[in-house]
Each structure stands twice: as structure tokens, then as C-alpha cells.
Amino acid sequence: MPGRLADKVALITGSGGGQGRAAAVMFAQEGAKVVVTDIKVEGGNETVELVKAAGGDAVFQETDVSNAADIKVAVDCAVETYGGLHIMYNNAAVLHKHDTTVTNLEEEMWDFVLNVNLKSVYLGCKHAIPEMTKVGGGSIINVSSLAGILGVGNVHAYTAAKGGVVSLTKAIATAYASKNIRCNAICPGAVDTPMMAHVLHGSNPKRLERVAKSHPLGRVGTPEDVASMGLFLASDESSWVTGSVFTVDGGYAAQ
Ligand SMILES: NC(=O)c1ccc[n+]([C@@H]2O[C@H](COP(=O)([O-])OP(=O)(O)OC[C@H]3O[C@@H](n4cnc5c(N)ncnc54)[C@H](O)[C@@H]3O)[C@@H](O)[C@H]2O)c1
After folding, report:
1. Fewer Cβ close by (within 10 Å): the C or N end of the chain?
2. Ligand 1 in reach of 14 Cβ (< 6 A)
3. In the chain, what are the domains?
4. Is the beta carbon of 139 within 6 A of some atom in ligand 1?
5. Per-residue pLDDT tens for 134-146?
């Protein structure tokens, strides 16, 4: 399929729902062949069906992003199925309960969240970079959060992991620029996905309105708002962009 990502192969973690699914469909519509990965098999298969319904090409590989062997298998799947890897979209993450600060955060939760949200990015890059090198370069997109750059939300393990994602993004960008591998981070504001369902659509109907108003543009984000930035960073349109951190947040961080 011709398009902004024609002839590219993309691996998107956590694409069995939410923003990752939106990116999978959008990337495929722009010509990329997509390896959909998620810990949830049903969601992953649904995304593949959506990609195919949109005229694109995708396969699903069950993957726990905190597991090194799983990540290796997912990268191998891209190479074996589609002949290489050009785009690594490290998107999968978990959010823990709000109002969990260092004093009431259990060590097990810290370890779990750091593994899924930060170690995963290390593992994804570790296995993707050698394959990108073989095809002459590539684009890594790491999904951080406003919580990675601002002290908001009282989600301290999540915040620490997302801050780590930002630092690692910059370090990878400088270390692998000579191999034509770019690495950028996206920091979304509140986006209406399953991750935020309990916050935005819980028992208090005023909650959504309040969160929407806290963003200057007056609404929460859609998965496509973030995937659109991902598409730009994945494409050659951003060929002189690396080591950058993009807020996609309806203006929240500008306040
Ligand atoms: N939704 C928001 O408001 C918001 C805000 C800022 C940043 N983010 C970030 O955006 C990214 C996408 O989140 P989302 O909003 O689409 O959330 P989501 O929960 O809707 O989607 C996350 C996906 O990751 C998968 N996943 C979870 N643990 C996994 C694991 N161990 N291995 C593989 N897959 C796993 C889930 O099954 C799910 O499909 C995440 O990095 C998140 O931290 C989200």
C-alpha cells in the first residue's frame, strides 16, 4: 500500500487496545506492515482484524514486554514475516492506582511497574536496534507521559518509569544517530483509553469534565491524537528529528 510508511515494517507493543491499536491501524493505512504485540491475545487479534478491514497487513505476536525472550521473539517475528524492522513503537505500559506515593507504594508494585514500563523500553531497543542497523536505520518511538516530565498524578512508580523513558530516549538518540537510528519520546496528557477508563468514566460524572477542563484545549485526547504524532515520528518526514520529547496534551504542560 503506498503512503507515508510505504515499505516499512513496524512493531507496536501494547497494540491490543488503546493508543497502540490506533497507531497500528493508522500506520497500516499509511503502508506499513505491522507486528501487533500485546499480553492480551484477544485484543491483539482484534487489532489485526481492524488493520485488515482497513486494507492493511498485520500479524499478532503474543508478548509480555517485561520478558526478554518474548521481545526477542516479537522482533524475530517482524524479520521472519516481513523481512526486517524499521519502526519500533514502545507503547505498552501499566498504570497503578492514583495516590500511590513513595510512602505507601509497595516494593512489589514498584518492581512490576518499572519492569513493564521501563525495562520493556530497554529490551525493545536492545533487540530492535541490531535489526534496524541491518536495514540502514530506523525510528524508535517511546511513549512516556506528562507524569514523566511533571510531578503530577501521585503515581510514583509510573512517574519514575516514565521519567526513565525520557532519559533513555535521549541517550539512545545520541548513541545510535551515526547508524541512522532516531529515537524520540511522546508525552501524552489524559487520553481516553481503557487505561484511563476508571478515572474518566468512573462513578463521578463530573470527573471527565474536570479532567477535560484541566487541558487548555478543553478536552481529553483520543488515541488517534497521539498516534498521529507517532506516525510523524515513524515517517521520513521527521528524518532530522531525534532525541526529542513531544508533549501531546491539549496544552496541559504549557500552563
Ligand atoms: N491514557 C492516558 O491518559 C495516557 C497518558 C499518558 C501516557 N500514556 C501512555 O500511553 C501508552 C498507551 O497507553 P493506553 O492509554 O493506550 O493504555 P491501554 O491500557 O489502553 O493500553 C495499553 C496496552 O498495553 C498492554 N499491556 C499491558 N501490560 C503489558 C505487558 N506486560 N506486555 C505487553 N502488553 C502489555 C495492555 O494489554 C493494553 O493493550 C502507555 O505507555 C501509557 O503509559 C497514556
Report:
1. C
2. yes
3. 9-191+222-250 (3.40.50.720)
4. no
5. 999 999 999 999 9
